[in-house]
Specification:
By secondary structure, the chain is an alpha+beta fold. It has 26 helices and 17 strands. A six-stranded antiparallel sheet has the order 2-3-1-9-8-10. The chain has a six-stranded antiparallel sheet with strand order 4-5-6-7-11-12, sandwiched between helices. Strands 15-14-13-16-17 form a five-stranded parallel sheet, with helices on both faces. Helix 6 packs antiparallel against helix 26 and helix 10 packs parallel to helix 22.
Amino acid sequence: MCGIAGILGAAGEDFAAALQSMADALAHRGPDADGIWHDAAAGVGLAHRRLSILDLSPQGAQPMRSPGGRYVLSFNGEIYNHAALRAALDEAGPIAWRGHSDTEVLVAAIERWGVAETLRRANGMFAFAVWDRAARRLTLARDRLGEKPLYVGLLGGRLVFASELNALRRLPGWRHAIDAQALGLLLRYGYVPAPWSIHPGIFKLPAAHSLCVGADTLASLRDVAGFTAASECYWDLRATAAASLATPFAGTAAEAVDTLDALLGRAVGLRMEADVPIGAMLSGGVDSSLVTALMQAASPRRIRTFTVGFGEARYDEGPHARRVAAHLGTEHTELEVSAADALALVPRLPELYDEPFADPSQLPTALISAVARRQVTVALSGDGGDELFGGYTRYFDALAMWPRIAPLGAGGRAALGAALRGFGTSASRVHAGAFRVARIGRRVGARDFADYYARLLSQGLVPTSTAAWPACVPEPPCRGGFRAPFDTPLAYMRLTDQQLYLPEDILTKVDRASMAASLELRVPLLDPDVLAFAWRLPASLLVDGRRGKLVLKSLLHRYVPGDLVDRPKQGFEVPLASWLRGPLREWMRELIAPRRLGDHLDTRAVTRLMDEHLAGRADHGLALWPVLMFQAWQERYGASAT
């Protein structure tokens, strides 16, 4: 796990000093070593920060040249099937290997097979930049599900890229500015989805995309439309899922569990390879417990596990994790997080995430990552289980509600939604529950199921009260509508979350939190074979009423007692509402005081939300948190920006 950065400009430019400065900004992502490579004649340079995981020797240092010298690679991530790729390369013709790193395998594969074929074969999490010295072309690529980040843009007529925005801020000519569309998306979803970033002219390379550029093609990357047109999707999640749905699993429920056991066991095994200490994030929920159980089953020694708990019982998974750890026999560490701990971390969030990001579970994720790093360098997590196997509570809510309102038609839903919103607004001053009625009304008035789910995902009042927020609130990029074979609510929700929520929220959260602590976090449930198999399963093995992830729970039953599995879903949440009314109250009031809000937010709307929340008439925590994260970020990086 590492950090990468680079510049592509005009021939004759020497970027050595700028590259070193960019690498220094990414030191937390790679504290073990750094390196730069540049070719002034070609006007290109690559920078790298190294967190040594495989091949700790200098033979794994980057940027790394290919065996024949044609390609130079700067790589962030892990290629889990590098041993199989190495064997395939050797079979086609011997290579004089210098070490045993996956980086060396990756750059050798690119030289022999080309970037496209290497991407097709690679199983991993990564973002990389590779310079073709012969063709004078730079190719950037990101892994299939977006586990590793990559920002790209033009600055002073040069292409610049980096794992984090902080590296780009080191460059001459950087200007702090806000993209109104990106801000609207942040307020709606709690994150800025690719290809946007919070800054105009700086983009996120979307998951499963590559971008090949030369000095002659830079001009096409000046806006979202041009960047999107220039980027190429090398792997299509929708097509992969559709192919799996077309070949449904025909075995029994027990056979499905057997198959998943083998697939997930292999995925966990691949991700346990490391030349450094390794552990597991254990929340006590189904996903992390299953990953931990498979790790312990494959390990001759007690694995280290880590969990976080809270003082409020509703949010405290510590006792559940403790019992799972005791049954599996792991070496367990538990961190109890107080509001004071959260308050101490809040001022650091803008630097940890370097772009406004508003998933409140970013707090415990960052705290537990720091604790885990004291003992291990690599940790496995259970992220992805809800999206792949149908575990979110919102799935159960939508599956219960949509059949009731779908027969009303778009017109009937609009009328019902308007009535519920009207009642909620008029009654809110005397009845706290009226806010919930109004919120339901905003969802019920949806045009179709895709619109309904977009509203269900919305953090705040957007899009039905756009007057309270920036006027421009676009939809995310087109990711496929409510049509076959994703024309059932469950299939549509799973696909949408795998395309949007998983890479842009969950994986962004765990990458920034873990890398801030120089910890590599690996996610076995996102293995390509596991994902494809999940889409082959019938809905009956996923969701039943308000019970989800049925096949995962059945598998977990093989490793831990039933009473540790069959309990209500808790989720990795924080008591945000009470914290904002309590220990974070004054921080919130000061941060969004009218004199500090600036021109980007509607002062009266934000103040109203805060006042209603503090009075206990409504829980606006999830609507306020994006505002607070944006304000904190603005004050850290440029409050006077236009």
